[in-house]
Write a structure and sequence with these properties.
Helix content: 40-55%
Number of helices: 6
CATH class: Alpha Beta
Number of strands: 6
Strand content: 25-35%
CATH topology: Aminopeptidase
Largest sheet: 6 strands, mixed
Order of helices and strands: EHHEEEHHHHEE
Structural class: alpha/beta
Radius of gyration: 17 Å
């Protein structure tokens, strides 16, 4: 039975999952990587960690990082569910976390795009710039 949690996996499970994708892992950096996590979804099949995804802050961007799913029958579905759940978490967090809100509001807000749309259709560059500073997909991996 596939179960999704909003908690970080323990360091051993996290390391084992990363090892399925990356050959050279600096164990000393694992703790700091997990500490920089803003939102996380861990996926378990029984007690076995089969996937995870997390959102971290890099400079003034929020990035989806370590989106990893081991070979499972429903790998694509699990990946999609992780992304949806991460977006839901970020949308909840932005209401009380100023740093997250600032990252999401770096460029014109969606209200600004909507307002400009009513006046005149925004250019492709305006829409792309607005969307690029939302959440970037970084490190998308399926094992």
């Amino acid at each position: 039975m596939i179960e999704y949690t909003n908690n970080l996996p323990n360091k051993v499970d996290y390391y084992d999952l990363l090892r399925t994708v990356y050959e050279d892992i600096d164990v000393s950096e694992l703790a700091s990587e997990l500490e920089n996590t803003i939102a996380c979804v861990s996926v378990y099949n029984g007690e076995r960690l089969v996937g995870m995804g997390r959102v971290k802050r890099e400079n003034n961007y929020l990035c989806i990082d370590d989106l990893i799913v081991k070979l499972e029958d429903c790998r694509e579905e699990i990946q999609n569910n992780i992304i949806v759940k991460l977006f839901n978490q970020v949308n909840q967090i932005k209401h009380y976390d100023v740093v997250v809100r600032d990252c999401l509001n770096m460029t014109m807000s969606s209200d600004d795009v909507l307002y400009k749309t009513i006046e005149s259709k925004p250019s492709e560059e305006e829409v792309r710039a607005s969307m690029e500073n939302q959440i970037q997909l970084n490190g998308y991996v399926g094992v």
